[in-house]
Structure formats: structure tokens, C-alpha cells
Specification:
Layout: H1 3-9, H2 15-23, E1 27-29, E2 32-33, E3 47-50, E4 53-56, E5 62-67, E6 71-72, E7 81-82, H3 89-93, E8 97-98, E9 106-113, H4 116-121, E10 131-137, H5 143-151, E11 166-171, E12 174-179, H6 186-193, E13 198-206, E14 209-210, E15 220-222, H7 225-233
Parallel strand pairs: 6-7, 9-13
Antiparallel strand pairs: 1-2, 1-3, 3-4, 5-9, 5-15, 8-9, 10-12, 10-13, 11-12, 13-14
Length: about 240
């Protein structure tokens, strides 16, 4: 693939803008400045820099973000900042989107990608991807509440009870809840239906992928092959 096409595919602007970056000597590989936009490069394992910032070539972007409170999972947020403001603009240019949504006040693991098949695989209700949430509750947890969450609670507007895959108390007011669906405000509504109230909510895991312990709040990182395999390892349902 030629250098101009590489930059274009990675979100560095229009083809004219990418050619200008190259002509201005702002693109380098292994500290060697490249000035030929038609230079043919092997993209396997390719790493380049633009204005001194390192970028790996990725056919598709697979990212994990440690979402802070106060951000909406939308490019056109209504009342808060967009989670996309936490990412470099190149990702917006290449069409990266959030894989499902977290409420503005919910924190934790948020996946993002520009791979449509990947996004569908982890958002389709048919795929039954387990998601682990940690909820801080207003009132102390008790066995009847946990039993109700496990056996199923009827949410307003639903015709069938919704049950958690797992529910247990980490301490008096800290609930670990695993769900398969991604209904609107699902965890908050389930806890309310069981007789309690969510005061704070954090997503800790999706599929077999846990939020990296060393990823600061508001920061993002690429998912490597091992993390992608872990993500898929705990996914149930038909199809891959």
C-alpha cells in the first residue's frame, strides 16, 4: 500500500491533506522522514510517526476506553461531553463508534471500533455477551434482593422477567451483577425492581476481557490479539 493511502486509511485527513503531511516532512518510519506519497510499504507490523507521534497501522481499530462519568456515548451529545472527545481525531475520521453505550454517569470498560462485524457481534442480543457491572446501592443488599435478581425481575414496559446470569454482594452496598442483555438503563432498572437503588455504576468486564487495571480513567489503548481473544473467549450464543 502506498504511503498516501496508508495515512488516508488511518484517519489522517483527505488524500490531499495526507499528501501535504508527507510533502511537509511530517511523516517518518524509524526516524527516517518519508517524502514520497507513492512509496509502497508493507503494512504488516508497520509503525510510523506523524509529527513525532507514533502510530501503528491497523486495518481496523479495536480500542478499550476507561470511561469517566459525565460523558455521553454519542458524537452529538445533548447535555455532556462526548466520549469521542477523549480520543485522537483520527479515530472519528475513520468512523470509530462505541460498541454499545454506557450512561453518562456510568464508568468503566467501553469498547470502540470501526469494524462493523465486530460491533454487531458484541451488541446483538442474539450473541448473549456477558457484561459484569459493579453497582453501589443506596440501601444494604440482602438475600431476597439477590434472589430476585437471579430468578428474574419484571421491568416496566417488558412482558417477561429479566434475570441476571450472576448476582452477589461484594460488601453491604456493593453488588456484582452479570447480565447478557443491553436494555435501556437495564442494571439500574433491575436493581430498582428488586427493591433497591443504584447510586453509582461501573462496568468491569465484557466477555472475557476485564478493564485493564493500569488504564487510567479517561484513557484509551489499542486491544492486542491476546485481549481480542480474551474478549471473545467468554461469549455465548450461536455465531462468531
Amino acid at each position: 500500500m502506498n504511503l498516501e493511502s496508508i495515512l488516508f486509511s488511518q484517519g489522517f485527513g483527505s488524500r490531499r491533506q495526507c499528501r501535504a503531511l508527507i510533502a511537509d516532512g511530517r511523516v517518518a518510519i524509524a526516524e527516517a522522514v518519508l517524502t514520497d506519497p507513492d512509496a509502497d510499504l508493507d503494512v504488516a507490523g508497520l509503525k510510523f510517526t506523524v509529527d513525532g507521534i507514533a502510530w501503528p497501522y491497523r486495518e481496523f481499530a479495536y480500542l478499550v476506553l476507561n470511561k469517566p462519568a459525565g460523558y455521553e456515548c454519542s458524537r452529538e451529545p445533548q447535555h455532556h461531553l462526548s466520549v469521542f472527545s477523549l480520543l485522537p481525531p483520527q479515530f472519528a475520521a475513520r468512523g470509530v463508534q462505541s460498541v454499545g453505550r454506557l450512561d453518562q454517569d456510568t464508568t468503566g470498560l467501553l469498547l470502540l471500533s470501526d469494524d462493523g462485524k465486530f460491533v454487531h457481534a458484541f451488541t446483538s442480543p442474539k450473541r448473549k455477551v456477558p457484561k459484569v457491572y459493579i453497582a453501589t446501592t443506596r440501601h444494604p443488599l440482602d438475600d431476597p434482593q439477590l434472589d430476585a435478581l437471579r430468578s428474574g425481575v419484571l421491568l416496566h414496559g417488558e412482558t417477561k422477567p429479566v434475570a441476571a446470569v450472576a448476582a452477589h454482594a461484594r460488601d453491604t452496598r456493593t453488588l456484582e451483577l452479570t447480565v447478557l442483555e443491553g436494555k435501556y438503563h437495564q442494571v439500574k432498572r433491575m436493581v430498582a425492581a428488586a427493591g433497591n437503588r443504584v447510586e453509582a455504576l461501573h462496568r468491569e468486564r465484557v466477555g472475557g476481557l476485564a478493564l485493564p487495571a493500569d488504564l487510567p480513567e479517561g484513557a484509551w489503548q489499542w486491544l492486542d490479539d491476546i485481549e481480542l481473544a480474551a474478549l471473545r473467549s467468554n461469549r455465548s450464543g450461536s455465531g462468531n
